[in-house]
Amino acid sequence: MNKILLTFILSILVLHNTSTAFAVGGNKLVPPSDFQAFDTPNDDGRSISLRWPSSPSESTEVEYVVYVSIRKSGPFNTEVLRINSNTMYKEGSDSNFHYVEIKPELFFNKESVVTGGKPDYFFKLFMMSDIENVAIKNIASATPKGNWFNWKKLNNFIILIAFSTLVLLFIEHAKKNPNLYLRKISGLDAIDEALGRATEMGKPVLFVHGLNGMGSISTIAAVNILGKIAIRVAEYDTTLKVSNIDPIVLSVSQEVIKESYLEAGRPDAYVEDNVFMAASEQFPYVAAVSGIMLREKPAANFFMGYFYAESLILAETGAATGAIQIAATDSYTQLPFFITTCDYTLIGEELYAASAYLSREPLLLGSLRAQDIGKGIIIAVLVLGAVLATFGIDFISLILKAG
To answer: 55-70: per-residue pLDDT in tens?
Structure first.
């Protein structure tokens, strides 16, 4: 009995000494020496930044937990952050500080927030492990404030001003020089050839819209091209048929063609029924247009706009009838089908450039020329930046940083 009692007392003493050693020794949690809260710079006034130095006690078993209150006296029972203690370091070469942005308004009801402006928020930082919880002594506070300008995006603003100035200069230059050089687009130069062939053969010209509505930029560009084609068709006294899948695109196409015939001095040649609604669904539309190709065998087919799976069926049917085919789309998934089945294909942004190329309108011409110059500058800067980055010079990447 005495041996059992002695063993029990010795066990208690060992446990006591172990816990004392843990509390006094190097395994005790050491909280960060500082904890700061401040308004996040260059934001819309909804965020507060928290910053604190690293602690020697950080490990994967220890967490940082932040609580917030709208009163300095608490209670601090609203948790806004819980992270592993060795994560979320401040960006840059200095990794001795933790940094995080908090939106405290997400954690409070509007009724609980002090009215009459943005309130002060009070934050308390804890280090927690399975054995011990330690709170840093100071309570950090800050008030979110909005900023008029985001200085991190100053480079974007400067680039915007520079590019806008370039566009305005080239628009003025295009007004004085309507023959401003643009890279040759073979598909657009072939329009006269296709229309001339249709006129000689006495066959119609078929213009096929893509499936998107007037809210799509590709459809707007296609309608602009349609207007230029309609002028030539009216001059050549050839029949133009335009298939549509969208009623709004149908109405716009009718008005554009009517204006084109009027501009060409042939308003009497305009036939409203030649601009028609083929179908309202994808594959019924394909079946209707394919039927027109096989029955009427147009000498020239134009596929303009945004296309989906119907592109190959349309283009293959047109190729089987022996028509000259010119396609233009910014749907990169359908470009391979048009390239293999059409005589000419306008790729991507060539569709957008077509209006300026055909009309020589100074506003469009100057904008397009400025875009080409801007792209050339960007390519040159990227190449220069890649070369400099190879030698450890990265200031260009900082200049082009999004913010």
So the answer is: 888 888 899 999 999 8
